[in-house]
Design brief:
The protein is mostly beta strands. It has helices spanning 5-10, 16-21, 33-36, 201-207, 218-221, 462-468, 519-523, and strands at residues 2-3, 64-68, 71-88, 97-102, 108-114, 119-125, 153-156, 177-182, 189-195, 210-216, 231-239, 267-270, 273-274, 277-280, 284-291, 298-302, 308-313, 316-324, 327-329, 334-340, 348-353, 356-363, 389-402, 409-412, 430-437, 443-447, 452-459, 490-493, 497-504, 510-516, 527-532. Helices cover 7% and strands 38% of the residues. One copper (II) ion (CU) is lined by residues 154, 156, 446, 448. The site of one copper (II) ion (CU) has 4 residues, from strand 7.
């Protein structure tokens, strides 16, 4: 017998997972009671603020050159990055935390590259055989027959061939590695890499397997935006810690099936530190903010009346800068912002998430001359016309709970991961995807390979749709917010709304995935393959 989450809650039968899910869109961060009562949990608010400097992840360094797989006459930089255990000092007064890392740091090393300059990465699984977090063997892909520790790396936001995209089933166990080719034939943008293993992705990323990847290009460099030491990544994610410094990941009440529907931690880390400070000059800085949380939506603001000048979203620059007092980011999304600290000379400015201070900028008295500027026009972004779409797909987002204690399942269009491919666009054609959210939660939907534009969001009659499959709109058309009106690869599909996106399937034919970027959902069926078909003439 199946019940929706809402009816389960009304019946008072919700497990921890469903209970936690209720907090997911709350404006104010709070510690869920059930989890706060975990013995030995550390309350991050009891730790001193701003005693650690903000770390900047090391830069990834090529170890040599290898031939370009698509043009063997050409040599590409070759990187070799090990996924391996590391101890991370999250806060001065917390014992070191055992985590899993790329190359020894969390976040892993930041890649810096240029548009069209391809590179090769050998991602090496040098992890132990036993997982550091509770694997749920009832989840598809995480069955007992499979090695407990498996990894496969995805470069989020990359236009990369299918073989290098980190297909969730292309995982490999400790002792093995995979070489991925990233041609980077795409515009400048802040991408990020993370584990994508079927059934344990949430645990591998939570353990620390994530990092930033920056693509630059000439067009962007011509703009005179802040650069060098004034251009920094802020990779943000939440965690929970024990008093011994260990990472804590909550489990359900069912020992056989520990999966929970969403993770929310009370410790918000920036570049792997809890409440760090960063000394800045009274001038403009470019901050590339990545929401690398499992499930938390961040709502950032700055103290002292400062605002974010948003210049970019997931897939690079917006058409024009947008001044924002508040900046919301769903899991997987990025925002590129310029903050001008000139107005706060000599002050301490804090970055907040909801009501919590999470980072302190110590603004100095003196700046070397600030030649950086934010031009009124950043780049042309041509809106993809709806008339160019050759297909419109209605795709539902659904949530199903069952009463016998098995995990809640989230699904895309009522399909399980292992069912045959249903989304099969032809290369270089345009499609409109209507994301019809039948659930009570917001789901950040991400498509691999492509960039897309948000057309609009619109409220519809959910109950009527459930009963008759008739899509009747009840609200007005809401255009994308200014900060999401550029090129995107992840979009918030809000509850009770149809979110329409328009996508040109450019790049490479082959098998890719689309999924909810709440990692707990993604692991539990809220992910589907899609197949980009070759052009008919080439077939
Ligand atoms: Cu950031 Cu398919 O993922
Ligand atoms: Cu991706
Ligand atoms: Cu979701």
């Amino acid at each position: 017998m199946f019940l929706t989450r809402r009816s389960l809650l009304l019946a008072g039968g919700a497990g921890l997972g469903a209970w936690l899910a209720r907090t997911h869109n709350d404006a104010v961060a709070r510690v869920p009671e059930r989890v706060a009562s975990v013995p030995l949990a550390v309350d991050p608010q009891s730790l001193a603020a701003y005693v650690d400097p903000l770390p900047l992840p090391p830069l990834a360094r090529a170890v040599g050159k290898r031939p370009d797989p698509s043009d063997p006459a050409r040599q590409l930089p070759f990187y070799r990055i090990e996924m391996k255990p590391a101890t991370v000092k999250v806060h001065r007064d917390l014992p070191p935390t055992p985590m899993w890392s790329f190359g020894g740091s969390v976040p892993g090393p930041t890649f810096e590259t240029r548009s069209g300059e391809g590179l090769l990465v050998e991602w090496v699984n040098a992890l132990p055989a036993k997982h550091m977090l509770p694997v749920d063997h009832t989840i598809h892909g995480a069955e007992k027959e499979n090695p407990e520790v498996r990894t496969v790396v995805h470069l989020h936001g990359a236009r990369a061939p299918s073989e290098s995209d980190g297909y969730p089933e292309a995982w490999y166990p400790p002792g093995q590695s995979a070489i991925c080719h990233y041609p980077n034939k795409q515009d400048a943008a802040t991408l990020w890499y993370h584990d994508h293993t079927l059934g344990i992705n949430r645990l591998n990323v939570y353990a620390g397997l994530l990092g930033a990847f920056i693509v630059r290009d000439k067009a962007e460099e011509a703009l005179n935006l802040p650069r060098g030491q004034y251009d920094i990544p802020l990779v943000v994610f939440d965690r929970m810690f024990g008093k011994d410094g260990s990472l804590y990941y909550p489990v359900s009440d069912d020992a056989k099936s520990p999966w929970t529907a969403e993770f929310f931690g009370d410790a918000i880390l920036i570049n792997g530190k809890l409440k760090p400070y960063h000394a800045v000059e009274p001038r403009k800085y470019r901050l590339r903010i990545v929401n690398a949380a499992n499930a938390r939506f961040f709502h950032f603001s700055l103290s002292d009346g400062l605002s974010f000048i948003q210049i970019g979203s997931d897939q690079g620059l917006l058409a024009a800068p947008v001044e924002q007092k508040f900046l919301s980011l769903a899991p997987g999304e990025r925002a590129d912002v310029v903050v001008d600290f000139a107005a706060a000379r000599g002050k301490n400015v804090t970055l907040k998430n909801d009501v919590l201070d999470i980072l302190q900028f110590r603004v100095g008295e003196r700046a070397a001359t600030d030649a950086a500027a934010v031009p009124a026009v950043l780049r042309p972004i041509v809106r993809t016309s709806e008339a160019s779409a050759i297909k419109t797909r209605n795709l539902t987002l659904e949530e199903i709970d069952n009463l016998v204690g098995e995990p809640t399942t989230m699904m895309l269009n009522g399909q399980h991961w292992c069912m045959p491919v249903t989304e099969n666009p032809v290369i270089d054609t345009v499609e409109i995807w209507n994301l019809i959210n039948l659930t009570d939660d917001s789901h950040p939907i991400h498509l691999h390979l492509v960039r897309f534009q948000i057309l609009d969001r619109r409220r519809f009659a959910v109950d009527e749709y459930n009963q008759t499959k008739n899509l009747r709109y009840t609200g007005r058309v809401i255009p994308p917010e200014p900060g999401e009106a550029g090129w995107k690869d992840t979009v918030r599909a809000d509850p009770g709304m149809v979110t329409r996106i328009i996508v040109r399937f450019e790049g490479y034919p082959g098998r890719f995935v689309w999924h909810c970027h709440i990692l707990e959902h993604e692991d539990n069926e809220m992910m589907r393959p899609f197949q980009v078909l070759p052009a008919p003439s080439a077939a």
